[in-house]
Amino acid sequence: MIEVYVKRGLNGWASFEFFVRKLPEKRNFLVAAGLEQVMMYLEGLRFGIEELSYLKEIGFSQDLLDYLAKFSFVGDVWAMPEGTIFFANEPILRVEAPLPQAQLVETRIINILHFQILIASKAIRVTLAARGKPLLDFGLRRSHEASAGLLASRACYIGGFSGTATVEAGRAYGIPVTGTMAHSFVLAHGSEEAAFRSFIDMHPQKAILLIDTFDTLKCARLVTRLYHEYLKKGIRIKGVRIDSGDLFELSRRVRKIFDQEGCNELLIFVSGGLDETKINNLVASGAPIDGFGVGTLVDTSADAPFLDCAYKMVEYERAPRMKYSTGKKTLPYRKQVFRCFDRKGLFESDVITTMDENIPSAKPLLVRVMKRGKRIYQDNLREIRKRTICSQQKLPPGLRDINNRVEYHPEIRGRLNRIFSNQPFSDNCPES
Questions:
Q1: How many angstroms separate the CA atoms of 277 and 213, rounded?
Q2: What is the pLDDT of residues 239-249, one digit of tens each?
Q3: Taking residues 201-230, what's their average pLDDT?
Q4: What is the DSSP string of 296-356?
Q5: pLDDT(430) > 90
Q6: Average pLDDT for residues 263-267, to the nearest whole number?
């Protein structure tokens, strides 16, 4: 396509918008994530000698090679800041650039946004289920390759997790790093007591001991003895982790042992195949659990492993463009999403308009983040995480319910509404 655009001189200014057509069955909302990586990609996109040689080898023209040799992204980008809650058919990001450039970056932009939105949106559900209890990302080993695990740690933090066991995520993104021990560590020492003493001696103020390798309750009693022994030396064991079995019953019985032995400060963390449903059930049942290690089911978004998302042209040379395809009709024009709040500052509704329209007292969600190929917007990961938490707290209880599906669709106003004569722009949207 780019080769044709270059050859035919189709270099007019084009606008493409990224959006999610419909939400997965168990999602009432999604969380914007991945913008930082999109901006890094656009700023750094270049074609070197090896890439150009390969394109020549597989038959592309010299015109295209000359174009790519001088490539540097010169467009503008508008986007919802990361951590923003959004709904189906709302534009999350818009690229405004010469047509060949806007088209060229399509696949990578979808790739970046799709993954982090998917994981952050799963993570916020787990955060809602945990009701304020700490959540740690344990998912690297079963992520879809190392870079996916690294970005999943970032997305989990955006979604409200407290920290990660992925050390590189701490270095790269400043996410708090924490961890415990593996069963192999216990097996290598031959006994739980020997393993625990080695670990406590190396990490005297942070030790969380894995107690389910052999006999969880017997090991809990061992921990109480070690707790008092080390306390006399000024060392406080932080807690224990249970990774298997009936987590409700085991946590209840371990807590009883700790309390009976005067070890009230010892924390109980659990892990092992956890997701929002299991955590919600444990918290609702009153299990005396202080925190959760969550991995595979979140870092792969196991119940909803993909989004029906798209990156579509909405204007070319300032003229509207739209698809009429059955089930995939799109809205033309560059758009803005306005969020309306009630008098208490709580979410009331979202409204989609064209960019040149305005809704007084409502908050525009799309902001310009790149201008002429250069970043003009900076964000902080801790602020992004805070934005996610604050955004979901402003939603009505129905939309925050992780067990029941609540259909919500943004209202379409002004010129966009008149285009369709009050007809839905997607098979999944009601009349506005």
A1: 25
A2: 999 999 999 99
A3: 96
A4: HHHHTTTTS---EEEEEEEEETTEE-----TT-----S-EEEEEEE-TTS-EEEEEEEETT
A5: no
A6: 97
Task: Supply the pLDDT for residue 421.
Answer: 55
Q: How long, in residues, is the chain?
A: 432
Q: Give the DSSP H/E element, type plus range, for residue 292.
A: strand 291-294
248 residue type, one letter: F
pLDDT for res 326: 85
- Evaluate if pTM is beyond 0.85: yes
Assign domain 2-119+307-419 to its CATH superfamily.
Answer: nicotinate phosphoribosyltransferase (3.20.140.10)
* Tokens encoding 351: 């409204």
pLDDT, one tens digit per residue, over 128-154 is: 999 999 999 999 999 999 999 999 999
Ranges of CATH 3.20.20.70 domains, the chain:
127-299
* CA angle at 120 for the pair 137 and 342, rounded to the nearest 5°: 130
Residue 215's CB is within 10 A of a number of other CB atoms, namely 12
Q: What is the DSSP-derived secondary structure letter of residue 177?
A: B
118 CB burial (10 A radius; 0-12, 13-18, 19+) = buried
Rounded Cα distance between 4 and 14, Å, is 15
- At residue 329, does pLDDT exceed 80? yes
Q: Would you list the DSSP string of 59-115?
A: T--HHHHHHHHT-----EEEEPPTT-EE-TT---EEEEEEHHHHHHTHHHHHHHHHH
Q: Which helix (H) or strand (E) holds 363?
A: strand 363-364
**β 374-375/363-364 pair status:** unpaired
pLDDT tens-digit map of 147-179:
999 999 999 999 999 999 999 999 999 999 998
Give CATH 3.20.140.10 domain extents, the chain.
2-119+307-419
In a 3-state reduction of DSSP, which class is residue 371?
strand
Separation of CA 102 from chain center: 24
Task: Quote the mean pLDDT of the chain.
Answer: 95
Q: Supply 305's token pair.
A: 């492993």
Q: Are 370 and 39 in contact (CB under 8 A)?
A: yes
d(CA 388, CA 377): 18
Class of domain 127-299: alpha beta
